[in-house]
Amino acid sequence: MATETHETERKYDLDDLDPDTPLPALGSLPGVGEETGGEVHELDAVYYDTADLRLASTRATLRRRTGGADAGWHLKLPVGGDTREELRLPLGEPGGGAADEEPGGDAVPEEFVRVLAARTRGAALVPVVRLRTRRTTRLLRDAEGRALAEIADDAVRAERLDGGGGAESGDAEVPWREAEVELTGTGTAALLDAVGERWREAGIRRAAGPSKLVRALTETGTPPPPLAPAAERDTAGGHLLRYLRVQYLAFLDREAGVRRDRPDSVHKARVALRRTRSALRSHRTLLDRGRVDALRAELKWLAGALGTDRDREVLEERLRGLLADVEGPLLFGPAEARLTTWAVRAGDTSRATVLAALDDPRCRALLDDWATLLCAPPLTSAAVRPAPKHFRKAIKKEGRRSRRLLARALALPHGPARDVALHEARKKTKRLRYAAESARPVLGKPAKRRTREAKALTSLLGHHHDGVEARAVLLRLATQAQAAGEAGFTWGLLYGREEARARGYEEEAGRLRAEGERAGGG
Fold it and tell me: The whole model's pTM is what?
């Protein structure tokens, strides 16, 4: 199994420096006690990608490297800002090749193939670039000798291995010089800023690209293809495409976490699916509906499959909280053990459902359609309209739908019919929330306010729906307890408490609706 670490680093171009000119000294920076080292390492790395560079275009890099202290397979995935998550497998693992093999001829480890499945969408991973790097490293340490950051001065030679950009394997290499500053130990972002300022004073600037791979691809004539074509910045279509691109990348990042069973990954992957589906509905006049309606249906399917695990997770947390609040004398029978049994069984089933959906050819087809939508968007003539007018209109439409359904639901008597109607109102209010959220770069504070208001209402209605689901599980647990000869009092007590909470949620929803009407939200 791969080891995991996070790296926070910044890259700098050194092309304007003479090859023999050293980097400016950093030992006098605030918090730095000394600058040590000067070791030289010879690194040889082969980067893998699909033939059409799907990893590079989605901010992931995969390499097999020899030399240095961390020889092996390295998979880097974005986290945010200057930070990436790095997964490592040593050479010599099954499929990983021997440490002394010439890189580029062995298979990618199966563990990494699985993690990258959503990005590759079935395309083979092949060697695309070889980088030979002569790296000189130094360490910044504090007054107590603790490591703060590593400075790497890299002389790089890049060679294309896939024939991209008209280059053939064995053609002349492309050289450049760059530097990396990576935090280690107790180093902080403030130190990165201080290094950057010192180097700016010496005429050294941040690198234009995010990685050596992207620079190598660009230098050899085949940069990673953009996920979405350039669009007029102030048009409705341009803003929509940027929003959809963010959701697509968010899903890819979280899907990798789902496969590795990382906390909250299922929830956030599902949110990206829902935001995309909602945007395709709220802004349907900007896209050819014949092209996007099928994709919306498939997004709903996948979100539903992922929902089995997320809903189970939410229910378990809610039920354990309810049980923890039961006073000792009111706790009858092995209630905690029975709840744990339900949670384990439900968790095993839901986890299997999620992984089966991600491995389903239907999911691969969905991802192909999603990527195609971004790369060749079926924009309509309405997409060239000014963004502010379109987004204001979309928010008003979703606001009217939300208020109408909520009013209908609250007019019903307390019971199953109202529960269903409130759930439908919640879904429409969530669509309003996402419409307002997508409009924030265009409309600013008004959209931010509508997002906040819609979020409060969807959260409240979400708690109500969770309570409905919790009562259904409590009823099943009570039935099982009775069949086993156990006292069912505790389950009935919790059911009653959930009923009372539901009425409170409904009253609060009515209050929020009245406030929205008085404010004239639309």
Answer: 0.89
